[in-house]
Specification:
Largest sheet: 10 strands, mixed
Distance between the termini: 52 Å
Radius of gyration: 20 Å
Shape: elongated
Strand content: 25-35%
Amino acid sequence: MTEASLIDPRAIIDPTADIADDVEIGPWSIIGPGVSIAAGTVVHSHVIIKGPSKIGRNNRIFQFSSIGEDTPDLKYQGEPTTLTIGDNNTIREGVTIHRGTIQDRGETLIGNDNLIMAYAHIGHDSVVGNNCVLINNASLAGHVHVDDWAILGGYTLVHQFCRIGAHSFTGMGSAIGKDVPAYVMVSGAPASARSINAEGLRRRGFSKEDIAAVNKAYKLVYRRGLTVDEALEELNALKQNSSKVEALIESLQKSTRGIIR
């Protein structure tokens, strides 16, 4: 159990919770049964964490967040579903994250090194990869998949079962009703495709050649009037010149709701 000096005496912690020795927990936070929190994590004041939930190392969870709560999905009948959060995530004020349902994965999963800003919501059975940013009030309905390095602008709304591709970007107030392919920048309500996330790729060290290849692939999908299947045939040839095109191909192949155009 954590040293007393690191847990505020006004916090309420279930005796069965598995808390690493150097975890800090602030006043008036409540940690329920079935919760495990790994080393280096800081839980600020007024946070509620319910289980079964597993929280990794070196996370920072800010005040008034509700982590691991039951989903409000009407099909949920109290089954033992889970939430798993990886390492080095920052979860800011008022964030809500629900556990899974037996109708899908049974688990909500968040990877590593993500920034989840104030009042964002991650619904049941959603999967958020690594190095993602959910800006204030971004909301994921249930069953949403967000791939690595995606950025969701403030007040972005994502419909159930949508996929947000790697390195993609959604503008403020975007309403996402279909899948967003990798690298694509979208905005609007309903959202439409605008361009590739070129600035994001430059910041992540993509070469000029790779960015040019991604841009060419984008134009092939969005400017030629091709169906997705027709575009995939040409993209498979294009990836011979740049392996970065593979992420776009994979996101198109995994799409089940159709892509934002």
